[in-house]
Design goal:
Blueprint: H1 7-16, H2 23-35, H3 46-55, H4 59-64, H5 80-92, H6 96-122, H7 124-136, H8 139-144, H9 150-170, H10 173-190, H11 198-208, H12 213-240, H13 257-271, E1 274-276, E2 279-281, H14 285-297, H15 306-318, H16 349-352, H17 356-367, H18 378-399, H19 412-431, H20 440-456, H21 460-463, H22 465-484, H23 491-517, H24 627-635, E3 645-646, H25 649-659, E4 664-665, H26 678-686, E5 692-695, H27 704-712, E6 715-716, E7 738-741
Helix pairs in contact: 2-6, 2-7, 3-5, 3-25, 5-6, 6-7, 6-9, 6-19, 7-19, 9-10, 10-12, 11-18, 17-19, 17-20, 18-19, 20-22, 20-23, 22-23
Length: about 750
């Protein structure tokens, strides 16, 4: 901290060095948080991993991002990130870690990019603090340790930011085009979410460039047209291709990429409406809770002995794991309730908001004395850029009807940038006794420590009282001592300032490590002592902090009564596409444990404590396959294209990952896509493309007629021929399901 008053000298010295020695440990920290133990995640998010397996088999599957090797339906996102994952799997072999690796490297790259972006204008210490804050923002490594898209998305947007800043510094229009084209590439990663940074890009270019208004409008218009062209390039190719020559566009209702972009992956995120068969629905939270609860009660575990089953049902009834949104205060998917203080609510605050009060004080300090009409310094211009990124995104997450916790990584760059730039600016004001501004540093430290105590308080049973009391006490003491010593200039004051920053980063650092300590969830990544549950909320939302609530949907034909299934979650019957994300829970966020779930601390897919040392099969779909079922299907396949058909991707993904064989998810990801009709299915059966159907009671929305026809025109295969245990295959919705065979002449 003592070097902050000589930033210019420090920066010149640093620029002469090839490597900033202070940056090295920051990068090593980021590498550890993003890479350590990713090799234990054997299947990652199985929905996406199955797609990579399929994309490795043909260019047709690769180009369209087909979920299954047969090219029946795509995943519900554009292909760019999955192209990168497929290339990684091609180079390193098909593993869980090889599909995660690109996102982990992107997380590290984002730390480095933020350092470069902040350092050039705000000084080397600001760059170091910003990079460290980015590395230790809990949701950043939590997402980067999975094969979800968001880490790569943020990295791409930071690359676009670097290009934009370079365009302003060099006054070269080519860099403007490159920056906006890069946003177009980001659109092909996660569609409209990439456009959340556009206000920052427009505002910054208008304010920062010294050219005529005519040129500004002309350049931005041209760049925007290029961005839109890049954005829709893949969509136009796909939508203009005959439907019978490509896979169905998963999670769309009209087999259209553009509809997917602006509906399911667009406006519906803001409104919270869900689209099923072309109609919108918004289910009240209380109704969701009642529906999910009633569905859960149907899932009795009949394979255990009567006394055990009774106890398990009692445990499940009293300790159901409510998916956020089930009528409780934490909102859908534990994302809180819409409102101006949503980012400070449980479930979101511990993912992203640890430094928000300090950021607010930093914004005040950085913009103090700025006149609306300018002129603006370079620091003020770039501060405006980060503010124009932060505010619209924060507003979206404050009012949006549907999103997941890991989307909050979009807020990490501006928060980290302000944390770094603000630390230097507030320290300078404090040391210079700059009137009321000199109080911003102790005020920011005090309020930030107070918020962190609030964030940690629901986790007292998991982390103990000491860390909470320690952060609170040290935060208050350091803020008060800095306030008292405001008129003094000596080395002790410098050390106090440095100590304060360490205190404010200590618990975010611990939270960032929780996916390593407790295990992560590749389907719904979040940070915290219950990170493996994928719910990212306080322990009260889960039966056990180490229990992975979303990790273990049962494979077709597996016993629901064995010890490994006791921790497995079952989606409600008839789950629809409503607001469902890959790796998300079923209908409107409601995911309940099976009635046989126990309150033990076993990790998913484990039958003993050995699970802690075995490979982790996270990803929301149990990637274990029923070998007896697989052997039966393989032995009795008479040349059919598909090994079997099932309602949705949950049952199909494990078999695709394990075998590489085509498995048809008739209704797409959640089972509600209107892909298949009875007449089309009849034609496929007559052509010898499919004859076995595994129906589990899931995903009826949009294909109930097809399922009814299958049941009425098929031969049920006795469970003794394909089930791995003697448990019943007909337990009702969300049970193990039934295997049917249809042969038409």
């Amino acid at each position: 901290m003592k070097h902050m008053n000589s930033e210019v000298k420090e920066e010149r010295t640093s620029n002469k060095k090839r490597i900033d020695l202070f940056l090295v440990p920051i990068v090593l920290i980021a590498a550890f948080l993003n890479l350590f133990k990713i090799w234990t995640d054997e299947y990652a998010n199985a929905y996406y991993t199955a797609a990579v397996k399929s994309m490795l088999q043909s260019f047709h599957n690769f180009f369209y991002a087909s979920f299954d090797p047969g090219g029946y339906v795509t995943i519900d996102k554009p292909p760019v990130v999955f192209w990168i994952q497929t290339i990684s799997a091609k180079i390193f072999g098909f593993h869980g870690w090889s599909v995660i690796l690109p996102q982990a490297l992107a997380g590290i790259g984002s730390v480095l990019l933020l350092y470069v972006l902040v350092k050039r204008t705000f000084g080397v210490w600001a760059g170091r603090f910003a990079a460290l804050a980015m590395a230790l923002t809990p949701i950043v490594p939590a997402v980067s340790r999975t094969n979800n898209i968001d880490s790569m998305l943020v990295f791409t947007l930071l690359v676009a930011t670097w290009m934009l800043f370079r365009a302003v510094r060099t006054a070269k229009f080519g860099w403007v085009l490159a920056a906006f084209a890069m946003i177009g590439v980001a659109f092909n990663m996660k569609m409209l979410q990439a456009y959340m940074v556009l206000p920052a890009f427009y505002v910054f270019y208008v304010v920062a460039t010294k050219i005529t208004w005519k040129k500004k409008i002309s350049f931005l218009t041209t760049a925007t047209v290029l961005m839109l062209a890049v954005s829709v390039s893949w969509a136009v190719v796909v939508d203009s291709t005959s439907a019978d020559k490509r896979p169905y566009m998963g999670s769309s209702q009209t087999n259209s990429v553009l509809e997917l972009a602006f509906g399911y992956n667009g406006i519906n995120r803001l409104t919270g409406n869900t689209s099923v068969m072309g109609s919108s629905h918004k289910q009240p939270a209380q109704t969701q809770q009642q529906t999910s609860s009633s569905e859960t009660k149907q899932n009795s575990n009949s394979s255990a002995d009567s006394s055990q089953s009774s106890n398990q049902r009692k445990s499940s009834s009293s300790q159901k794991m409510q998916a956020p949104g089930g009528g409780n205060q934490n909102g859908m998917f534990n994302t809180g309730n819409p409102g101006p203080f949503r980012l400070f609510q449980k479930g979101l605050s511990d993912q992203i908001s640890w430094l928000l009060p300090f950021v607010i004080f930093s914004i005040v300090g950085l913009f103090a004395g700025v006149k609306f009409k300018g002129p603006y310094t370079t620091k003020q211009k770039e501060s405006l850029f980060w503010l124009a990124w932060l505010l619209p995104v924060a507003v979206f997450f404050s009012i949006a009807g549907f999103f997941h916790q890991y989307y909050l990584i979009m807020l990490a760059p501006p928060i980290a940038a302000f944390a770094g730039a603000g630390a230097v600016a507030l320290w300078s004001m404090y040391k210079q006794h700059n009137g009321w501004k000199s109080w911003l540093l102790p005020g920011g430290i005090l309020t930030t420590a107070a918020l962190q105590v609030y964030i940690m308080s629901p986790y007292v049973s998991s982390i103990g009282v000491a860390p909470i009391a320690g952060v609170g006490a040290l935060g208050v003491i350091l803020a008060l001592v800095l306030a008292i010593r405001k008129q003094r200039k000596n080395s002790l004051t410098n050390y106090l300032g440095a100590a304060a920053m360490v205190v404010l980063l200590a618990m975010p650092a611990y939270w960032a490590m929780t996916p390593i300590i407790y295990g992560g969830n590749s389907m719904l990544p979040s940070a915290g002592p219950d990170s493996s549950s994928g719910m990212g909320g306080p322990p009260s939302t889960a039966t056990n902090s180490k229990q992975s609530g979303f990790n273990g949907m049962q494979p077709p034909g597996s016993s629901s009564g064995n010890s490994s299934s006791n921790n497995q979650m079952q989606p409600p019957s008839g789950s629809s596409n409503g607001g469902q994300m890959p790796g998300g829970s079923s209908n409107n966020g409601q995911m309940q444990p099976p009635s046989g779930s126990s309150n033990n601390s076993q990790m998913p897919n484990s039958s003993s404590s050995k699970s802690s040392s075995s490979k982790r099969k996270s990803g929301g779909m149990n990637a274990e396959v029923n070998k007896k079922l697989l052997n039966y299907l393989t032995k009795n396949n008479t040349g059919e294209k598909y090994l079997f058909a099932t309602t949705d991707s949950t049952s199909a993904a494990p078999y695709i990952i394990k075998t590489g064989e085509p498995v048809m998810a008739m209704g797409g990801f959640s089972g509600s896509d209107p892909i298949l009709t009875v007449s089309k299915l009849k034609a496929m059966i007559k052509k010898g493309e499919v004859k076995y159907f595994y129906l589990s009671g899931m995903g009826k929305g949009g294909q109930s007629d097809v399922i009814t026809w299958i049941k009425e025109n098929s031969k049920e295969i006795p469970s003794s021929k394909w089930q791995s245990t003697s448990s019943s295959a007909q337990q009702g919705p969300s049970g193990n399901g039934t295997l049917y065979e249809i042969t038409l002449k």
